[in-house]
Amino acid sequence: MIDLYTWATPNGRKVSILLEELGVLYTAHPTNVLPGNPKPSWFLEIAPNGKIPAIVDGDLALTETGAIMIYLADKFGGFLSQETHQRAKTIEWLMWQMSALGPMQGQAFQHTVAHPGKAVAAEKWILAEVNRLYCVLDAQLSDRDYIAEDYSIADIACWTWVARSDWARIDLADYPNIQSWFSRIHNREAVKRGYDVPHKAHVIVS
Ligand SMILES: N[C@@H](CCC(=O)N[C@@H](CS)C(=O)NCC(=O)O)C(=O)O
Question: Could you tell me the pLDDT band of residue 149, with boundaries at 50, 70 and 90?
């Protein structure tokens, strides 16, 4: 049984969706460590950087969604190819989400949702950057159904962020390839179940 410490955010949802897709038994522990909330010492022992999500599997405590997703996909055998080239492409796009889409859209949330009008130049810059990233993803999806051929952890990782494209004032109609990819994944039962872990608690969305 895996213990998942999480909250209803794009990063948190990546792991609950993957666990649902893999059909793995897990216990979700609602863990709100978002800014303004305490970070208890028991949680910092599991997650030294103080961020959700984190998992505990036996004597392994693991953080960072990229690492968690690769670990779970390898351990339970799904959504990450063992074929070298395919695996590298999937990890490439997983890293793209971790280093570009997630951080930039997170900044967009800070500038345009949490603190609108406080730093107009930064707001303008970040919206342009997120739109540029959506152009990159839309181009990648122009000749395929999923980001790295088969449905994979790269799709799950990007999908939870695209699900909150409103933070960057993005209209998915402007990105038709992303829009159809988004619906394809949205219709998966495991995605619907995993999205609402834990318990539809949308605290960072006003
Ligand atoms: N790179 C980390 C990012 C995790 C992250 O930023 N989690 C946010 C919620 S989406 C968090 O815990 N924020 C609390 C804080 O910043 O204090 C990952 O992919 O796991």
Answer: confident
pLDDT over 90 for what percent of the chain? 94
Output the pLDDT for position 200.
52
Average pLDDT, the chain: 94
Cα of 160 vs centre of ligand 1, distance in Å, is 13
Domains of the chain, by residue range, sit at 2-79+191-195, 84-188
Q: Ligand 1, residues 51, 156, 167: which to mutate, most atoms within 8 A of Cβ?
A: 51
| Rg of the chain taking only CA atoms, in angstroms | 17
> Which of 52, 99, 203 to mutate for ligand 1's pocket (most ligand atoms within 8 Å of CB)?
52
Of 3.40.50.1980, 1.10.3720.10, 2.40.50.140, 1.20.1050.10, the CATH number of 84-188 is: 1.20.1050.10
- Decide: residue 48, CB within 10 A, 0-12 exposed, 13-18 middle, 19+ buried: exposed
pLDDT over threshold 70, residue 204: no
Say yes or no to pLDDT of 203 above 70.
no
